[in-house]
Specification:
about 80 residues, two-stranded antiparallel sheet, three-stranded antiparallel β-sheet, alpha+beta, about 15% helix
Length: about 80
């Protein structure tokens, strides 16, 4: 008997050793013959139900927004940008 490996990635997709046939609730069928298939769990993928790593871009944007200094845009180190 062949076992199918399914790995749930924290904050990411579900990885399934392929090939796979995914049956959607509306009756559509998505097939992939790849050796490993990433199934989207965040629903941000433009290729849903397959993962296109959109969860990474969202996580990176949230992380960079926290590190931005709101006063940084008001200052400049360019002397030519100041008026006498």
């Amino acid at each position: 008997m062949t076992t199918t490996r399914v790995q749930v990635v924290a904050g990411g997709p579900v990885l399934v050793s392929g090939p796979v046939r995914i049956e959607m609730p509306g009756g559509d069928v998505v097939e992939s013959d790849r050796f490993m298939v990433a199934i989207c769990t965040c629903r941000r993928s433009g290729d849903y139900p397959l993962c296109d790593t959109s969860h990474r871009r969202c996580r990176n944007l949230k992380g960079s927004a926290r590190r931005v200094d709101p006063g940084a845009s008001a200052t400049t180190s360019d002397p030519a940008a100041t008026t006498p």
